[in-house]
Amino acid sequence: MANTACFMIVARNDIPIYEAEVGSAAKREDAAQLHQFILHAALDVVQDLAWTTSAMFLKSVDRFNDLVVSVYVTAVFKMLVCFFLNLTTHTRLMLLHDSRNEDGIKSFFQEVHELYIKILLNPLYLPGSRITSTHFDTKVRALARKYL
Amino acid sequence: MIGVGKMKLYSNVLDKPLSKGKQEVSLSAFAFLFSELVQYNQTQVDNIAELERRLEDAGYAVGARVLELLCNREKGNRRETRLLGILSFVHSTVWKVLFGKVADSLEKGTEHEDEYMISEKELLVNRFISSPKDMGTFNCGAFVAGIVKGVLDNAGFPAVVTAHFVPIEGQQRPRTTILIKFADEVNACPYLLLYFILFSSTKLSGNDLILTHVP
């Protein structure tokens, strides 16, 4: 069981469309902001790695003290042309955690990915907008308790 | 459907399994729906170009979702990172799932480097549609062009996709060709990516450095 874990779904343009603290420890005041900051900082590394492999699960891409960031990249993708450099941004599922349970994390990502696809299939859902469904929230937290 | 067994009723769509389910939808139902879609858009616009653009936008939304869904179902969560890979994905997998068969042919354009064409003897969406003479070269295949554009755009290969009628001798009805013209970034991407990886390798540890040298 991880003590601290922060899960975030980041869409194109680096805008988070869903975030949740799924750790089992008591939350500190500043912990939430720190976790989000670390996750945002890891976005650059993800962009490099995403094009080098056709797999979706990118394992751990960054470390901060003893917290590890793992990332899972989905197929939906948007290119940003910035000056002379191409910045490619997939929809990313990012998890900040301190456990070493790789298989559990991979299964967690796969299940949340399926939930995300079901949300995406809704024709009235605009891709890249915030996910506001409480049912989705409940399910993600249940999955986190199960796998993390 | 007597004797199949009771279908489990799910209270929320998120609980429903994402499995294949029923693959087929009634063609006549789709034809009615599509004709209503075209007629509705006809009342909203003044000219043909606008109508084509609206059909394309409708197809774009479908394409985005089809890409994500098919990557999950058919390819076991492996993304496409190569141009030819994504083109053959569209040509075979997407066509098979949407229309029940692979597209007739995939060709590379001879005039320009980044043009490709997918041809079909008769598009499924056009089967029950006839255009009056005063609409000129309007093609309801713009919907399918929108689907292809949605798939390519969301996979990271921006392109301009259009549908054209190509008359063939010996056949009454013209063939339909989907013309795909990739944006400039698509050709440049692999080189810039290589540049980016090599020069950003200072961020990574010693072990990771070995990995990045395999293009």
UniProtKB/TrEMBL annotation, chain A:
Q: Where is the signal peptide?
A: none
Give the matching Pfam families. Sedlin_N
Q: Respond yes or no to whether keyword Amino-acid biosynthesis is given for this record.
A: no
**Superkingdom:** Eukaryota
A Gene Ontology BP annotation from the UniProt entry: endoplasmic reticulum to Golgi vesicle-mediated transport
Transmembrane feature ranges: 67-87
Name recorded for this polypeptide: Trafficking protein particle complex subunit
> Species name for this entry?
Brassica campestris (Field mustard)
Q: What is the lineage of its organism?
A: Eukaryota, Viridiplantae, Streptophyta, Embryophyta, Tracheophyta
UniProtKB/TrEMBL annotation, chain B:
Per UniProt, which keywords does this protein have? Endoplasmic reticulum, ER-Golgi transport, Golgi apparatus, Transport
The record's annotation in InterPro entries points to:
NO_sig/Golgi_transp_ligand-bd, TRAPP-I_su5, TRAPP_component
Domain of life of the source: Eukaryota
Family annotation (Gene3D superfamilies): Trafficking protein particle complex subunit 3
Q: Does the keyword NADP apply?
A: no
What the entry lists under Pfam families is as follows: TRAPP (PF04051)
Say if the entry is tagged with keyword Endoplasmic reticulum.
yes
Q: What GO cellular component is one of the record's annotations?
A: TRAPPI protein complex
* Locations listed in the record: Endoplasmic reticulum; Golgi apparatus, cis-Golgi network
Gene Ontology annotations of biological process type:
endoplasmic reticulum to Golgi vesicle-mediated transport
Please give the family membership noted in the entry: Belongs to the TRAPP small subunits family. BET3 subfamily.
Assembly information from the UniProt record: Part of the multisubunit TRAPP (transport protein particle) complex.
List the protein's name. Answer: Trafficking protein particle complex subunit
- Source organism lineage? Eukaryota, Viridiplantae, Streptophyta, Embryophyta, Tracheophyta
